[in-house]
Amino acid sequence: MGGYLIRRLAQSVVILLGVTVITFALLYALPADPARMIAGRSATADTVARIRSELGLDQSLPVQYARYLGRLLRGNLGRSYAQKIEVTDLLRSRLAATFWLMLGGIAFELLIGLPAGMLSALRRRSAVDSSVMLGAFLGVSAPQFVVGLFLLYWLAYRWGLFPLGGYGTPAHVILPAFALGIAGGGWYARVMRSAMLDVINQDYVRTARAKGLSEPRVILRHAVRNALLPVVSMVGLDIGTFMGGVVVVESVFSWPGIGQLAWQAIQIVDIPVIMGVVVVSALAIVTGNLLADLAYPWLDPKIRYG
Amino acid sequence: MGSIERSENAAVIVPVAAPSRRRTSSPATVWDRVKRNRAALCGLVVVAVVIGVALLAPWITPYDPARQFTDGLSQEGRPLPPSSRFWLGTDLLGRDLLSRLLYGARISLLIGLLANGAALTIGTFFGAVAGYFRGWVSTAFMRLTDMMMAFPALILAIALAAILRPSMWIVALVIAMVNWVWIARIIYSQVLSVGQREFIEAARALGVPTYRIFWKHLFPHLLPILLVWGTLGISTTVMFEASLSFLGVGVRPPTPSWGGTINESQSYFLEAPWLVAFPGAAILLTSLAFNLVGDALRDAIDPQLRGR
C-alpha cells in the first residue's frame, strides 16, 4: 500500500508538471500580446516595451517557464495582469463558492442516480426500467445551460421559489447544483443499474437469500453495498472536475466560482490567472482520481494494491 | 448481465476447436438487434431527420436565415413570438428563428463530423500504436493520456477558442484536441487484446509489413467499436459546440448556430423564453438521438457490454 501510494503520488507530480508545461507553451505561443492588453490601445510602443520587460515577457520561453515554475514551487502563482492582486488570493476567494457548488452537484447526482439505477435494475426489462433509462439519457443529453435557464425561468422568475442567481445562502446553491447534477445523475443511474445487475447474480447474494434474509435486507446490505463501487470512482472523478470549475453553470447562475474566474480571465487574456486556474483544476482532478483509487480497497477488501 | 448474454459467453469455452473468439457480430445481426430496440429506432429517425434537414436546409427553410425582417420585431423592438408567419417566432434582429435553426443543424453536424472525425483518427492512431508496440511506447502513451485527462477540458478549449478567434475549423479542432484521449484509451485496450490473438502473431511471423498488419488485420477489428464511439461522440461534440457557442467562443455570428442563438437571446430570456426553448430542444433531441443509437449499437455489437 505504501509503495503504491508513493508511486501514485510521484505520477501525480509528473502529470501536474506536464500540465503546466503544456498550458504555458500554449498560452504564450498564442497570438495575443499581454503587454499590449495591459497597456491599452492608445499606449506608445515604449510603454508596451517597458511593461513587457517588467513582466519578463521579453525573455525566452524556457527562461520564463523556469521562473514561473520556481515561483510556483514556493506557492506563488504570480499577479493578475488586470486586477493587480495575487492570483492565489483571487483563487482563494473563489474556492469556497466552487466547493459548495461541487458538494451540491454531487449530492444531486447521487440523489437522482442511485435510486433510479436501483429501481431500474430491480424492475429489469419492465416499463419502469425502460422509462427510467430513457430519463437517464435525457438527463445526459440535456445541455446544462438550457436546463439552468429554465430552472431560473420557472422556479425563480415565475414561481419565486429561489433567488435569481447569485451566491450567499443555502437557497442559492440548490438550482445551480441541480442543473449540474442532472447530467451526472443520468450517468450514475446507468452505472448503478449495470453494477446492480452484475451483483444480483453473484453467489453471495444467493447465499444471503438462501439463509432467509428478507428481500430489502438482501438488496440493501449485500447488493447495494457492492454495487456502489463503480459509483465511488465516478464521485472521485466528479470532485475533481467540479472543483476545477464548471464554467457553464457558474455563468448561467452568476456563481462566483473558479469557472467564472477563468472565464473572465480568458476574455482579457489574463495569463497568470488562466495558468492559476488550470494548475488548481489539474490538482483537483488528480487528487479526485487518487481519492477514488484509495477508496476502492477500503470499500472492497478483495482489491489490494501492491 | 443476464442469462442470455452469459450463455453466449459460455459458448466460447465449450467448443473444442473454436478457431478464434468471435467477439463482434455481423452487420445483419446488429441490425436485427437494433431493430428490436424501440428507443433506438426513434433515435434513428431523429438522426435521419437532422441529417436530412442539414442537407436540404436551403430548400426547406421558409426564409433566408440572415434576412432581417422590418416587420420581424414588435413596436418596442422586441422579438416576435411564434405565429403563422414566423412559425417559431423571430430572434433579436427580427430574423426567422425556424430558418436559423434549420441552418443551425448544418453547423452542429458539420462541426460534429469534423471534430469527431479528427478525434477518432488521432485517437485510433495513438491508441493502436501504443497497444501494438507495448513496452515504453505504451508507458509513454499512458502517461500522456493521464496528463491530457487532468486538463480542465472546457477551460482549455475556451481559452484556445477565445484567443485563436473562433472559426468553424478552430472550434472543431479544439473539440477534437479535448476528445481524442478517450478514444485513444478505448482503442488502446482493444488493440492490447486483439494484438495478442494468433492471427496477428501469424502475420508477424510471416513477415507481413507492420503498416499492412495495422491496416488489413487490426483495423477491421476496431471498426465496430469506432462506429459505436463515433456515434456517441457526435452527441458529445454537438453538446460541446453548443456550450462553446453559448459562452460566446464558438462559431461567430452571423453564422446561425444553436448554442449561439441561446447566447444572443440570454438577456431577453425572461421576455422571450422561446428563443432559448427551441434551440435548446434542437440540441437536446440531436444529442439524445445520437446517444440512443450509439448505445443500441454498442449493445448489439457486443452483447457482453450490455448496459454499460
TrEMBL record, chain A:
The chain crosses the membrane at residues 12-30, 99-122, 134-157, 169-189, 227-253, 273-296. It is found in: Cell membrane. Gene3D superfamilies: MetI-like (1.10.3720.10). Pfam families: BPD_transp_1 (PF00528), BPD_transp_1_N (PF19300). One of its GO terms (biological process) is transmembrane transport. SUPFAM superfamilies: MetI-like (SSF161098). Keywords: Cell membrane, Membrane, Transmembrane, Transmembrane helix, Transport. Belongs to the binding-protein-dependent transport system permease family. This is ABC transporter permease. It comes from Candidatus Segetimicrobium genomatis.
